[in-house]
Amino acid sequence: QFGISFDADRGESSGGGAAAPVWNRNERLALDEQRRRLPIYAHRTQLLYLVEGHATTVIVGETGSGKTTQIPQYLHEAGWTQGGNLVACTQPRRVAAMTVAQRVAEEMGCRLGQEVGYGIRFEDITTPGVTKIRFCTDGVLLREMMEDPLLQRYSVVMVDEAHERSLATDLLLGLLKKVQRRRPDLRVIISSATIEAEKMARFFDTSNVRRPRGHVEAPAEGAAPSRSPALMSVEGRTHSVQVHYLEQPATDYLQAAVQAAVNIHREDLPGDILIFLTGQDECEAAVRQLEDEGRRLQRSKLSLRLKPVALYAGLPAAHQLGVFEPAPRGVRKVIVATNIAETSVTLEGIVYVIDSCFAKQRCYNPLTGLESLLIAPISKASAQQRAGRAGRVRPGHCFRLCTEEDYQEKLPLATVPEMQRSDLANAVLQLKSLGIDNIMSFDWLAPPPSETMVRALETLHALGALDLDARLSRPIGSQMADLPLDPVLARLLLAAGERGCTEEVLTVAAMLSVQSIWAPGGRREVDEAKALFAVAEGDLISYINVWRAWEESGRNKRWAVAHRVMHRNMLRAADIRNQLQAHLRRLGIPLKAALQGASSFDHADALTTVRKALAAGLFINAAKLTDEMTVKLSDQHDTGASVYRLVRSAGGDAAAAKLRIHHSSVLFRCHPQWVCFYGAEQNDSGWYEMRDVLAIESGWLTELAPHMHAAAGRRRAAPPPAPARTGPATAFYSSRCFSAWQVWKSAPQ
Ligand code: ADP
Ligand code: MG
């Protein structure tokens, strides 16, 4: 019953509509007993006392001590939710917000969405007037501040997992500090791992800050709380964990991890295993290998059977069930997880942790303006958190897949806050729309690099969100801030309004806002599925084809399965599309279709309209084909790919960034001269690989963004050499690159 089943077949998250839990008395008592046994319970009174007396309370405690599930309940029980107030608890991850809300609803014996609810982007499972405790992502609370800058609905905001230093958490902390000046009655609770706690407390300490002259303190009810933060720590109930290192560095951590798990299993001692890898693909691959190993080991007389399960953020809820359920007798669970299992979710029964010591981390290069996910070594602080997961039930073991020297020398002490390695365009837009004009002097917990700030301002200016004085432009800038999308998507949606093609562009924006719409599978199968919808104009137009075929099928699940389209994600996209549509309506933007109404004679024009609207946001990331080819790349089907260069009038540095089209793109085998793209990934060899690519024409850049691309149009590139398309594998897509409409016509109904 853990994990949320968003059985999307019913077109809704079952969260809100689930039947009320029926508790018999014994189950209730058992849950209450469990709650009382948590380490935090002994600190309940002290905690409530501190929160009463201090504007800010910083709490440090081991994972599993009960911070997330208990503190909001204590506050509720102590009356902080009376008089229509809410208690918010923010999480950096969506999955955490959902699973924790589910658990707390269970503990409180209520239906999820009633007294206890959650909010993630595009999904709000709360009932106004009824909900008392709201778990939400930090991003959602940030967005809420645009409508309610002082967060008047909330009496307490608990910022959970603050040590993770997600971009939104950092922003939120800076803003909360500001809000506290105007609302001394607001209580802030910050839960953090030890390493960051002192810093947080210092940041919130305003006891020495003199109020500016003429400052009028808003009247607080009762005595104002102390402005110096309270620090409280809750000892965990953890056992010792023995850490092991490799003697030789591993060449492949995935293999090493699987091998380590098998070795532990062969020892035949009881206890579940938790493996940390970096991403969904790796987790799935490891699970497959472990399943094979498990079958092989079945023949030897081991008392336990191996049961590998994957855990990552995009995992369908139905599969999450297996992760949180205790393993039945005679079964050893091996959870293969991403960073997500580090602190945010509770896993019981783990005795062994196998740590690759790597994680996917967002990184941003302000010179190229490209953000990408990079597999990088984790910090020592993270490694310690991961190891800690092994000592929950009894003394455990942690196997780090690196040598001890490497661990000591190569792993940084703490992770660099996301704020300092992300594109800040969105953050700056949000701050601007909150009326914080002087971004540079904002009270940052950790100031971002100034190049990044400059780049963010440039980007927003190029998109038309800021005027020449770097103030939010009206209506474009404020409308962009209003849309729950990043600036690029927000801009292209507004451009669609101007060009009369919102219907098509809404589809694209919605489909870009969900995880892959393709059912997982081997690369070849997915490629084949895509080929049916692929068009020479690129991925974004292909998405429109998929969408329309799916709509035409009556949103039929069988159709989706037959075409390897992920039905669940399509339904989610449909939901997001509806919400975005409502936003546009609210902004008074006309909803029009360009392609649907057009006669076949006008299709080319209509298609150009849609592409131009998309390019009106995506021009920020434009690239031009060069006559270079990459040499052999990692994959066996691959013989090389054409090289692109970023087009930016900024020149020098940006032009140095070399890109290629990602193999998941329908344009992987076509090489349009000019492209825009929505995202890029950096691969192991340092190449940026463009995803969600749109083919454009060179003149468009100067037309759509003359200030940014003035020079680009003039420097016409020499025609590229004929791309090498030999052998069946390499020619895979080339025959499918028709114009959008042709393929749409021949797409299966
Ligand atoms: P913390 O936030 O301090 O890491 P939590 O409040 O998340 O701790 O969890 C406290 C305890 O509540 C866990 O140790 C576990 O026993 C129980 N718990 C939390 N979430 C779940 C869940 N989804 N399913 C079962 N038990 C859970
Ligand atoms: Mg927690």
Global morphology: globular
Uncertain ranges: 1-19, 711-749
The end-to-end span amounts to: 38 Å
What gyration radius follows from the Cα positions, in whole Å? 27 Å
The percent range for helix content is 25-40%
Which structural class best describes the helix and strand composition?
A: alpha/beta
Number of helices: 28
Give the neighbour order of strands across the main sheet: 4-3-5-2-6-7-1-8
Q: Describe the largest sheet.
A: 8 strands, mixed
Bound molecules: adenosine-5'-diphosphate, magnesium ion
> Strand tally, please?
21
Bin the strand percentage.
15-25%
Instruction: Calculate the mean pLDDT score and round it.
Output: 84
Features of the shown structure:
alpha/beta; six-stranded parallel sheet; 18% strand; globular; binds adenosine-5'-diphosphate; binds magnesium ion
Structural notes for this entry:
This is RNA helicase. Residues 257-435 form the Helicase C-terminal domain. Strand 14 (358-365) and strand 15 (370-377) form a beta hairpin. The two termini are 38 Å apart. By secondary structure, this protein is α/β, with parallel strands linked by helices. The strands form four sheets. The protein has an eight-stranded mixed β-sheet, with helices on both faces. It has a six-stranded parallel β-sheet with strand order 9-16-13-10-12-11, sandwiched between helices. The radius of gyration is 27 Å and the shape is globular. Helix content is 39%, strand content 18%. It contains 28 helices and 21 strands. The structure holds adenosine-5'-diphosphate (ADP) and magnesium ion. The site of magnesium ion has 3 residues, from helix 4.
